[in-house]
What we know:
100 residues; four-stranded antiparallel beta sheet
Amino acid sequence: MRYFFNFFIGTAYLCFSTLSSANTIKTRPFVDATQLVSTHTECWYDNKRYSEGALLQVHSITLVCATKHPQHNNSQLMWLKLDKQGNLIYPKKPATITVN
């Protein structure tokens, strides 16, 4: 009798454990492409997207995808040249402001 009771409990345990599996819903993150383009969090070259810090060799010039304004946390990215020592060359700002 004890073996029958153990067999019954074991069978019930197996049936309930296989039937009680949770139905998980697979979700995918929603990425809005217009948001990615509007935030300028990448550099583009030859119709390919590059992230910050990417190095690109164009002829004899080495380009780096770096922040446009290094003092800002959320600055846009742009391609900057490297000099022979490996330092970034930022574009020169105009000395004066003209108003038309």
